[in-house]
Amino acid sequence: MNNDKLQEIYTSVSDSIQGQSGAWRFYIKEVPLMCITDTNHNRMRIISPIADSNTVSEELFKAALVANFHTALDVKYAVSDGVLWSVFIHPLKELSEHQVEDAVSQVYYANINFGSTFASTSLTFPGSINNEKEEEPKEEKQELRKL
After folding, report:
1. Which of 7, 73, 100, 128 has the fewest CB atoms in 10 Å of its CB?
2. Does residue 92 sit within a domain?
3. Domain residues for 104?
4. CATH code where residue 32 lies
């Protein structure tokens, strides 16, 4: 994958696009997404702002961490500069066109599903956060010996 091909893909999947090679902002159904690449280090990321992180409850943060394991598959929820984001990060050159299109879709769906299913695709792995169940007293854990 390279920046020229990324621009081509983002132009075809988005409603509008701005920016230049290596730094784009585009919209899908009014949801903003951005892509930043670093060809010198072979990295890229697609990100989408969800909310001011100071307004997100502890319960939603915990649910997002669980989602990072179960329902946000190739994307993750992350916080940076006071913003909660849906994020896809990957080596640039190794990406296929299909992977980029899928990544855009997952970043978009992780954004719009935050607070409900937290899903980036229709595939989910079992698991949940159960706040209603009281925690049972835990046995004291033995200290692990690291190798």
Report:
1. 128
2. yes
3. 3-112
4. 3.30.1460.10
Distance CA 92, CA 89 (A): 9
What are the tens digits of pLDDT across the range 95-119?
Answer: 999 999 999 999 999 999 999 888 8
Domain presence at residue 106: yes
Tokens of 12: 């075809």
Instruction: Give the pTM.
Output: 0.83
